[in-house]
C-alpha cells in the first residue's frame, strides 16, 4: 500500500476515533444517568418493603438480639419441620395441615406460620439495616455509585453488541450456501483468503437481481454474501476482483472496526424521537439529530478510507487493478437507485458492500459510505498504468 494511502488512513482513523470516542462518551453519560435513575427507582421499591419489615413487630426487638439470628433460627425450624413432616403426619388424624384436624396438625401449622413470618420479617429488617448502614457511609455510598456505573456501562455495551448482531443477521437475510454459477466461488475466496492469511469465510448467495457483494462478521464467523444479479453480470475476472475486495476487508479487520464504529451511531439512532409533537420534543430532537449526524460523519470518514484500502488490497491480490475498475464501472451502470431491500444508513454500514447501498453515491457527501465510484476507477486505472510501466 502506497505511503500516501497509509497516511490518509491514519489521518482518517485519528479523526474518526476522536469523533466516535467523544460520541461514545456522551452516550455513556446518558447510559449512566439512566442507570442512576433506574437504580434509584429499584432502591426506592426495595427499601419500602424492607422498612415495613423493620418497623413490624419482631421477636428480635423484644429479645434484643440480632434479626439475623432469628432469621437463621426460623429457617432452621422450618427445615426441621420439613425433615420430620412424615413423623408429624403419622401422629395426626389427617395427612394435611390446612384445615387443622387435631392438636398435632394445628400446632404444626402455627409453628410453620410463625417461622415463615419471622423468616420474612427478620430477614427484611436485617437487610434494611445493612442497606441503610451502607448508604450512610462514604465507602458504601461511593460503592453503590461505582456498581451503578459499571452495570450501566455493561448494559450499554451488551445492548450495542446485540443490536450489531441483529443488523448483521438481518443484512445476510435469506442468503444460502447453494452453488449457483459455474464459478467455484468458495474455491476462489478460499485461495484469496490463504494469500492474505485469514480464516476462509463462508460464501453465501442471495437471490436478488440487484448486484451486491458484501462482508459481515470477522475471523471464523465471517461471511461474504454475493447476489445472483452480481454473479450473472460480471465476468470471471471481474467477479474474482470483487471477491478480492471483500477478502481485503477481512484482512484489514474492517468488519470488526466498522461494527465498533457503528455501535455508538446505532445507540444515537435509537435516541431519536420519530414524531416530536411539542416544543420540548423538538428541542430534544434537534440535539439527538446533531449527535446522530456527528457520529455518522465520523463513521463515514473512516469507511471511505477502508474502501480505498480494500481496493488497493484487491488490486494486489489479483494483480489486475483493471479487473476491479471494470467491475465497478459495470456495477455502477447497473445499480441505479435500489428498488428492493432498501436498508437504513446503519445497516448499509454493517454490510461492507463493494458499492454504496443507499444510492449511486451513498448519500449526501459528508455522510457518504463510499468514495466516488469515478474516483475509485480513476485510481485503479493509475495503478494499472503504473504496473504496465514497471
Mind explaining what this structure looks like?
This protein is mostly helical. It has two domains: 3-26 and 163-389, no CATH class; 56-136. It is 72% helix and 4% strand. The chain is built from 14 helices and three strands. It has helices at residues 3-55, 59-63, 67-83, 85-91, 103-135, 138-172, 185-196, 228-233, 236-251, 254-271, 279-318, 321-335, 345-350, 373-389; strands at residues 202-206, 213-216, 223-227. Strands 1-3-2 form a three-stranded mixed sheet, sandwiched between helices. A hairpin with a 6-residue loop joins strand 2 and strand 3. Helix 6 (138-172) packs across helix 10 (254-271). The protein is elongated. The two termini are 16 Å apart. Residues 337-343 have low confidence and may be disordered.
Summary, kept brief:
With 390 residues, the protein is mainly alpha-helical. The chain has two domains: 3-26 and 163-389, no CATH class; 56-136.
Amino acid at each position: 500500500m502506497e505511503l500516501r494511502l497509509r497516511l490518509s488512513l491514519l489521518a482518517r482513523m485519528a479523526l474518526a476515533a476522536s469523533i466516535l470516542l467523544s460520541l461514545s462518551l456522551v452516550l455513556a453519560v446518558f447510559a449512566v444517568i439512566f442507570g442512576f435513575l433506574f437504580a434509584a427507582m429499584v432502591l426506592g421499591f426495595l427499601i419500602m418493603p424492607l422498612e415495613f419489615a423493620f418497623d413490624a413487630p419482631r421477636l428480635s426487638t423484644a429479645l434484643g438480639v440480632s434479626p439475623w439470628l432469628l432469621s437463621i433460627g426460623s429457617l432452621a425450624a422450618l427445615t426441621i419441620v420439613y425433615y420430620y413432616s412424615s413423623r408429624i403426619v403419622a401422629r395426626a388424624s389427617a395427612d394435611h395441615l390446612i384445615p387443622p384436624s387435631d392438636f398435632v396438625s394445628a400446632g404444626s401449622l402455627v409453628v410453620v406460620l410463625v417461622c415463615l413470618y419471622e423468616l420474612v420479617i427478620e430477614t427484611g429488617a436485617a437487610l434494611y439495616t445493612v442497606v441503610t448502614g451502607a448508604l450512610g457511609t462514604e465507602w458504601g455510598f461511593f460503592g453503590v455509585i461505582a456498581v451503578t456505573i459499571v452495570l450501566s456501562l455493561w448494559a450499554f455495551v451488551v445492548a450495542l453488541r446485540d443490536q450489531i448482531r441483529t443488523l448483521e443477521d438481518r443484512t445476510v437475510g435469506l442468503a444460502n450456501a447453494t452453488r449457483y454459477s459455474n464459478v467455484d466461488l468458495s474455491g476462489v475466496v478460499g485461495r484469496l483468503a490463504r494469500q492474505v492469511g485469514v480464516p476462509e469465510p463462508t460464501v453465501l448467495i442471495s437471490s436478488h437481481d440487484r448486484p451486491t457483494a458484501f462482508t459481515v462478521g470477522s475471523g471464523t464467523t465471517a461471511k461474504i454474501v454475493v447476489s445472483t444479479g452480481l454473479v450473472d453480470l460480471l465476468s470471471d475476472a471481474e467477479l474474482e476482483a470483487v471477491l478480492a475486495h471483500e477478502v481485503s476487508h477481512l484482512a484489514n479487520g474492517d468488519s470488526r472496526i466498522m461494527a465498533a464504529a457503528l455501535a455508538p451511531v446505532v445507540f444515537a439512532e435509537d435516541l431519536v424521537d420519530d414524531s416530536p409533537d411539542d416544543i420540548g420534543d423538538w428541542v430534544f430532537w434537534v440535539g439527538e439529530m446533531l449527535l446522530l449526524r456527528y457520529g455518522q460523519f465520523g463513521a463515514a470518514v473512516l469507511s471511505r478510507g477502508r474502501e480505498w484500502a480494500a481496493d488497493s488490497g484487491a488490486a494486489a491480490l489479483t494483480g489486475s487493478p483493471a479487473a476491479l475498475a471494470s467491475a465497478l464501472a459495470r456495477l455502477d451502470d447497473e445499480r441505479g437507485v435500489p428498488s428492493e431491500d432498501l436498508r437504513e444508513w446503519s445497516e448499509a454500514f454493517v454490510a461492507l458492500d463493494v458499492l454504496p447501498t443507499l444510492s449511486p453515491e451513498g448519500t449526501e457527501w459528508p455522510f457518504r459510505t463510499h468514495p466516488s465510484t469515478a474516483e475509485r476507477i480513476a485510481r485503479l486505472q493509475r495503478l494499472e498504468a503504473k504496473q504496465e510501466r514497471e
